């Protein structure tokens, strides 16, 4: 076995994408094993690989880890992306959890029925620009550092960049009123490991398309 983490998921973003981002940010090479059919998922379930019968699942350090937050916590701790003490870790958790809430909205947009899409889009824009982004803009202003927590690159920075880019895919001018988030985006995107992950041909996944939804439904339902 190569010592690389092995990621089991479908060939798309979903709940694995933040894990891919975190590994890439840490400069860790990983392998991917894509679920193509319902049988692929059933095989993992039957051989006892999935503790709660669901993916994402990551094979790392001799473990078969499930639950995306647990996986991310482990990777962040292992690769020193989780702050220098308990208080910094608490801040990182708060910032990350809020971003996960916004991410959920962004991720589920493609799955909305046609008659709900417009309202769902309006909800995304409203929550991003009125609830979430003003907080991170203020954090950067008050903190006065290049990073969200302490003065050290952490998983909070990785999660924020991922979410900003997803929001811009949804609405290209969504950061218009947030100059500090714009400069944060440019700065973090230039960190060598992140820059590499943002290049074409990396393991970063494109946005989910409508045409992909039926295939996913066949695997998971």
Describe the fold and architecture.
The chain is of the alpha+beta class. The chain folds into two domains: 6-79 and 198-212, Glutaredoxin (3-Layer(aba) Sandwich), CATH 3.40.30.10; 86-190, Glutathione S-transferase Yfyf (Class Pi), Chain A, domain 2. Helix content is 56%, strand content 7%. It is built from nine helices and four strands. Strands 2-1-3-4 form a four-stranded mixed beta sheet, covered by helices on one side. Helix 1 (17-25) packs across helix 6 (155-170). It is globular and about 50 Å long. The two termini are 32 Å apart.
Give keywords:
221 residues; alpha+beta; Glutathione S-transferase Yfyf (Class Pi), Chain A, domain 2; 2 domains; 7% strand
Question: Layout of SSEs?
Answer:
Elements: E1 6-9, H1 17-25, E2 31-34, H2 38-46, E3 57-60, E4 63-66, H3 68-78, H4 86-108, H5 114-143, H6 155-170, H7 179-189, H8 192-197, H9 213-220
Parallel strand pairs: 1-2
Antiparallel strand pairs: 1-3, 3-4
Organism: Sagittarius serpentarius (Secretary bird)
Enzyme class: transferase
Family: Belongs to the GST superfamily. Alpha family.
Total of domains: 2
Bin the strand percentage.
5-15%
Q: Tell me the distance between the termini.
A: 32 Å
| Unreliable spans | none
How many helix segments? 9
Remind me, CATH topology of the largest domain? Answer: Glutathione S-transferase Yfyf (Class Pi), Chain A, domain 2
CATH architecture of the largest domain: Up-down Bundle
Shape, please? globular
Number of strands: 4
Mean pLDDT: 95
Give the ordered list of helices and strands: EHEHEEHHHHHHH
């Amino acid at each position: 076995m190569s010592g690389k983490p092995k990621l089991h998921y479908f060939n798309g973003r979903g709940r694995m994408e933040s894990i891919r981002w975190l590994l890439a940010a840490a400069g860790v090479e990983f392998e991917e094993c894509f679920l193509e059919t319902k049988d692929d998922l059933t095989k993992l379930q039957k051989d006892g690989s999935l503790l709660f019968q669901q993916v994402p699942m990551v094979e790392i350090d001799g473990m078969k880890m499930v639950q995306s937050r647990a996986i991310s916590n482990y990777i962040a701790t292992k690769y020193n992306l989780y702050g220098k003490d308990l208080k910094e870790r608490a801040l990182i958790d708060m910032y990350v959890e809020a971003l996960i809430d916004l991410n959920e909205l962004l991720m589920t947009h493609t799955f909305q029925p046609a008659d709900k899409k417009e309202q769902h889009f309006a909800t995304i824009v409203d929550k991003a620009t009125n609830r979430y982004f003003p907080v991170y803009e203020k954090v950067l202003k008050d903190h006065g550092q290049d990073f969200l927590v302490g003065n050290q690159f952490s998983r909070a920075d990785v999660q924020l960049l991922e979410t900003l880019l997803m929001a811009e895919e949804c609405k290209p001018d969504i950061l218009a009123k947030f100059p500090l988030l714009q400069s944060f985006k440019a700065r973090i995107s230039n960190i060598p490991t992140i820059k590499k992950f943002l290049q074409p041909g990396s393991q970063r996944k494109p946005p989910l398309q409508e045409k992909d939804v039926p295939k996913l439904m066949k695997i998971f339902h």
